[in-house]
Design goal:
globular; Rossmann fold; Alpha-Beta Plaits; six-stranded mixed β-sheet; alpha/beta; binds pyridoxal-5'-phosphate; about 425 residues
Length: about 425
Amino acid sequence: MAARAVSLDDVRRAQRTLAGVAQRTALEPSRHLSRLVGAPVRLKCENLQRTGSFKVRGAYVRIAGLSAGERAAGVVAASAGNHGQGVALAASLLDVRATVFMPEGAQLPKLAATRDYGARVRVCGQDLAEALAAAREYARATGAVFIHPFDHPDVIAGQGTVGLEILEQCPRAGTVVVGVGGGGLVAGIAVAVKALSPDARIVGVQAAGAAAYPPSLAAGHPVTLEAPVTMADGIRVGRPGDLPFRIVKELVDEVRTVSEDELASALLLCLERAKLVVEPAGASPVAALLSDPAAFRASEGGAGEGAEEEGRPVVAVLSGGNVDALVLQRVLRHGMAAAGRYLSLRLLLTDRPGALAALLEVLSAADANVVDVSHVRTDPRLGIAEAEVEVHLETTGPGHCAEVRAALRAAGYPVMS
Ligand SMILES: Cc1ncc(COP(=O)(O)O)c(C=O)c1O
């Protein structure tokens, strides 16, 4: 077998390079997830890393490895957010000029932060692929060094330092669960963890709408997805990186997929239960635990009283926390709806004074909290004595939703949807 392009020694060297630069982020226990899974669950908080994601690790190691001549030429990257911030901070710490191409529609706080870390930002292209093409063209025209977000041994070694830290903080870790875009993070973690703890499992997680790894692994080579779609912009990548793919194929035990609902529910859980702000890509490992907890249960452990502290720990890497407040609001709403905590209903009322108040009375008696009401009387589809009401309610979960519907039916309200 050919020597692997990234070794444990490379990751150890990267860790020395990152001393005093990357933070050793906390590994937090999660009682809620431990109970759900039936094994101890730990959260690796790279959402609290400098720049808000693990990306600064790989970017710094890559730029620190450049020759003096290359550094003088500056660096260029393309990114929808986290990689750009990582490159911007790494370059400024190393006194290297950085230009970051971001696609139109990139989240504004990510754009502003990249600029604040000292990079020159160029907004260019409809999507990341177009921004990447522009960045490569800029590199060709100016001699700046292109810093790939995942397909380079130094970047992978830098990301692998997350794996070293996990084993330092939790030597018995039995499973490490990692979000996967191009695959640099999971590849680096796999190199470190499998070298030091060969029987530990590495599980990659992709968003179902942007899952290029499963078909690529089945085909034996990277396959390109036409139009990857997911709210998790950090892992919205249409093709595995060549080098990460080779490592993933050899070392990663499985790659799972999660739905958008599961991503939203995971983000909500991180916020409510762990008090951690995590972006959708960063919450993907938690989404995998939510979607199939039994798959992560240690064989010697099991659900039930006390089981959550038995067995080898499962570590979920919360890879990033950079999320625009508006996106957060949307995702949380979606997460609450997915968790049955948000109920939207359309009803027909008789259009007479007091009808709306009577409806609200029924909802109040059912303990449903009204978030929003719209009351339409002038739609031509409605009869002359009819009004349509749309109500958005907060509930405590699916059981409560059923109770609210039952209370409305019992009070004689026809629920349209
Ligand atoms: C928050 C977050 N998680 C996971 C990833 C996936 O990393 P990779 O492309 O190395 O698989 C990214 C990549 O940008 C990210 O920003």
